[in-house]
């Protein structure tokens, strides 16, 4: 059974159709890159898959391990193992990063029928995970994303990914706003999490990230449709040729 | 998809007020209404000395000349003061000699409330004076406190056994002429708590009073007086609940604090009176006058309040900073959900030199709730080098609630500093979705965001109270996000 199977997915916002029929299959162990020009629907796809409010699905379906993903509330999708690394991580003043992660991790554990970790056990666990993204443990005590630099926020996203150990990881423009050092650290964190049980969908505008996270498949999203799919060499081709080869009619 | 939070909301709004049970306790009640005879009746029930009765009568006569204030940002039908029962006491089966003889129904009530009335709970380290309806039922841990020289008893006992202390301080901070509700309270208050911490004594445990309105159509008018002599320290906790009733009930309390030289009083309140149902029916009208005076130099009074209950809250715990370098603090979380209205804040009156005050107010509005912060910072001419810092933050949930801020500043010298910061924010869809994407339910996410918002206040609470406040806020907010 595929980890994720999207069939004929159409979705939009406020009556405007953005995704115009997406077909995509992601198996465990695979890394798929979704590239495309601005406004092609890349972020919409990750939002619809994770259940953000405001979007309307008009046709098609998304099956996650054979289950109807779109029928689940966002928290259930998360607990089932669908993770989104946000393009713009949100600040939560007054809530420590550690407390937030503990609550999230225990919610996920509970869903999986595991006992909740005590504060001490969790601290030990999270300190190990912080090493994966080379995060200063002091950031664990700071409020969630409050006053974090762009790089720290993105690293924090990957830390959360490492802590929650999801099965399907959606990375929404995780490279945006990162300098090359931060990019390497973030990519290193993602690579450390690659495993035969886990699938990734990496949404990105630029090829740059894919220098560090090597995809198995590359898809070009334009005008709400996947217009071309291929191996990692497709990303290199896009880097050279840009998106100008896509007919304007398709982009619209 | 957008409808999911709404569905969760509908499900959760039906959650009921947890403390809404009614205890079946036989009560000794006065007839409805207010007159000189009722004032005399209350005074004679309490077997009070003549001076006390005179004071009450003066207060009553003065009250007759007053009109209920209309300036608060509160809207409620006119209160009929002749329709209220001003005295209701659990009827004792016989004279009580020990805790074992307390009416089992009364004990059960307090057990339901989680009050450590039983001796075995001595480990909890809380001395509790429990006021049910109008009368103090039992005071625990008397001996430990006695050994330290601390007097902690019901107000009625204090009048009997420590009349000089009471007479000296009663009305010294909140005179009966202060306002409409303070005058009413002075006339008809039937009990409350009294604490005196002698010179140089650090009170060995947190003192606590638990107030509960049980009987129907009853008003509760308690009065608390705490005096900390030179170099004394006391931390005092106050909690309140009431049964669910369709009609509104009146609560008009007065609290007076006196801190002598270098004394410190920390006063924490968790107010969870019945707020009314989700349509705004019923609930407590909570009109409270709380004020402390930092009489001596280098003294400190700190108010921390978590106001989650009551249909109407009108309350401004204040500090008169008379002693030089004295310190006043006010930390407040006020929640207005459903149809609750809160008009609350503080007054910091700087009289002494080098006095400082801090105000941190967190207002949360949800449903149709209306939350008003009203605060006065007054710096007298002689209060040279005084400083105040005020921070008022409002959090809104949904489209139908409101947050209002009325800060008043009066600075009468040039050497003082006053800072005021205010923010208003909404719990965003972004924050909620972020939390839910990490596996938290909407309910847990809201609780987490709101508790984060209140953190600066909660950290001022004694630890066990902070845990309680945290839980209470989550319960009070259930289903407030749409």
Give a verbal description of the structure.
The complex is a heterodimer of chains A (252) and B (482). Helices cover 36% and strands 29% of the residues of chain A. The radius of gyration of chain A is 18 Å and the shape is globular. Chain A has 252 residues and is α/β, with parallel strands linked by helices. In chain A, helix 7 links the parallel strand 9 and strand 10. By secondary structure, chain B is of the alpha/beta class. The model of chain B is unreliable at 1-15 and 116-126 (pLDDT under 50). In chain B, helix 6 (155-161) packs across helix 7 (163-169) and helix 9 crosses helix 10 (442-453). Chain B has one domain (3-477). Chain B is globular. In chain B, a hairpin with a 2-residue loop joins strand 3 (126-132) and strand 4. In chain B, strands 5, 6, 8, 10, 11, 13, 15, 16, 18, 20 and 22 form an eleven-stranded mixed beta sheet that branches. Chain B has a ten-stranded mixed beta sheet with strand order 4-3-7-9-12-14-17-19-21-23. Chain B has a two-stranded antiparallel ribbon with strand order 1-2. The chains are: A alpha/beta (252), B alpha/beta (482). At the A-B interface, strand 4, helix 2, strand 7 and helix 3 of A face helix 9 and helix 10 of B.
Q: What is the terminal separation of chain A in angstroms?
A: 34 Å
Number of domains of chain A: 1
- The value of Rg of chain A in angstroms is 18 Å
Q: Quick one: CATH class of chain A?
A: Alpha Beta
The description of the largest β-sheet of chain A is: 6 strands, mixed
CATH superfamily of chain A: P-loop containing nucleotide triphosphate hydrolases
Q: How much strand of chain B?
A: 35-45%
- Low-pLDDT parts of chain B are 1-15, 116-126
How much is the radius of gyration of chain B in Å?
Answer: 22 Å
Tally of discrete structural domains of chain B: 1
**Helicity level of chain B:** 10-25%
Please give the share of residues in helix of chain A.
25-40%
Q: Quote the beta fraction of chain A.
A: 25-35%
Can you summarize the main beta sheet of chain B?
A: 11 strands, mixed
């Amino acid at each position: 059974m595929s980890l994720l199977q999207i069939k004929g997915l159409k979705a939009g916002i406020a009556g405007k159709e953005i995704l115009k029929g997406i077909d995509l299959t992601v198996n465990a162990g695979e890394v798929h890159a979704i590239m495309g020009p601005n406004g092609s629907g890349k972020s919409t796809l990750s939002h619809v898959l994770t259940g953000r409010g405001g979007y309307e699905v008009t046709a098609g379906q998304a099956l996650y391990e054979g289950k109807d993903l779109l029928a689940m509330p966002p928290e259930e999708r998360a607990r089932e193992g669908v993770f989104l690394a946000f393009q713009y991580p949100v600040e939560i003043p007054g809530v420590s990063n550690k407390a937030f992660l503990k609550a999230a991790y225990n919610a996920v554990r509970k869903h999986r029928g595991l006992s909740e970790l005590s504060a001490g056990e969790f601290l030990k666990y999270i300190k190990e995970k912080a090493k994966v993204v080379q995060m200063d443990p002091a950031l664990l005590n700071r409020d969630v994303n409050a006053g974090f630099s762009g790089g720290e926020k993105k690293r924090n996203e990957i830390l959360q990914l490492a802590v929650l150990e999801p099965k399907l990881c959606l990375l929404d423009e995780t490279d945006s706003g990162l300098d090359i050092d931060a990019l390497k650290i973030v990519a290193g964190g993602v690579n450390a999490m690659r495993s035969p049980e886990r699938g990734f969908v990496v949404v990105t505008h630029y090829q740059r990230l894919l220098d560090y996270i090597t995809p198995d498949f590359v898809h070009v999203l334009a005008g709400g449709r996947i217009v071309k799919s291929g191996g990692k060499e497709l990303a290199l081709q896009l880097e050279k040729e840009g998106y100008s080869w896509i007919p304007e009619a398709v982009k619209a | 998809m957008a409808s999911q939070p709404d569905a969760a909301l509908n499900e959760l709004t039906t959650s009921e007020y947890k403390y809404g049970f009614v205890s079946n306790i036989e009560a000794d009640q006065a007839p409805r209404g207010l007159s000189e005879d009722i004032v005399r009746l209350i005074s004679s029930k309490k077997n009070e000395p003549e001076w006390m009765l005179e004071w009450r009568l003066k207060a009553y006569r003065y009250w007759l000349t007053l009109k209920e204030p209309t300036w608060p940002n509160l809207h409620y039908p006119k209160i009929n003061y002749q329709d209220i029962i001003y005295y209701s006491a659990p009827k004792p089966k016989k004279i009580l000699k020990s805790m074992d003889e307390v009416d089992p129904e009364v004990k059960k009530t307090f057990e339901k409330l989680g009050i450590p009335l039983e001796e075995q709970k001595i480990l909890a380290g809380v001395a509790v004076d429990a006021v049910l309806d109008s009368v103090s039922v039992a005071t625990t841990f008397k001996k430990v406190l006695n050994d330290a020289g601390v007097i902690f008893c019901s107000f009625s006992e204090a009048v009997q056994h420590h009349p000089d202390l009471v007479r000296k301080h009663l009305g010294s901070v909140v005179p009966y002429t202060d306002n409409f509700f303070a005058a009413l309270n002075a006339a008809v208050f039937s009990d409350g708590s009294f604490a005196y911490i002698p010179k140089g004594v650090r009170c060995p445990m947190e003192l606590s009073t638990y107030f509960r309105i049980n009987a129907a159509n009853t008003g509760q008018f308690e009065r608390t007086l705490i005096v900390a002599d030179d170099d004394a320290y006391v931390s005092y906790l106050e909690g309140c609940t009431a049964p669910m009733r369709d009609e509104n009930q009146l609560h008009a309390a007065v609290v007076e604090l006196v801190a002598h030289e270098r004394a410190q009083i920390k006063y924490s309140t968790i107010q969870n009176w019945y707020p009314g149902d989700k349509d705004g029916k019923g609930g407590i009208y909570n009109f409270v006058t709380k004020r402390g005076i930092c009489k001596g130099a280098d003294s400190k009074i700190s108010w921390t309040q978590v106001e989650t209950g009551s249909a109407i809250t009108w309350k401004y715990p204040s500090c008169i900073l008379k002693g030089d370098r004295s310190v006043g603090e006010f930390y407040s979380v006020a929640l207005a959900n459903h149809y609750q209205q809160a008009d609350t804040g503080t007054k910091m009156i700087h009289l002494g030199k080098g006095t400082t005050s801090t105000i941190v107010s967190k207002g949360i509005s949800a449903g149709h709730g209306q939350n008003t912060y009203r605060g006065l910072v007054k710096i007298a001419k002689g209060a040279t080098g005084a400083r105040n810092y005020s921070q008022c933050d409002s959090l809104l949930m949904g489209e139908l609630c409101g947050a209002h801020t009325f800060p008043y500043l009066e600075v009468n010298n040039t050497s003082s500093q006053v800072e005021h910061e205010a923010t208003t924010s909404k719990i965003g869809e972004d924050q909620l979705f972020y939390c839910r994407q990490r596996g938290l339910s909407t309910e847990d996410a809201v609780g987490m965001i709101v508790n984060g918002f209140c953190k600066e206040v909660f950290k001022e609470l004694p630890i066990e109270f902070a845990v309680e406040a945290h839980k209470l806020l989550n319960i009070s907010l259930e289903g407030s996000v749409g």
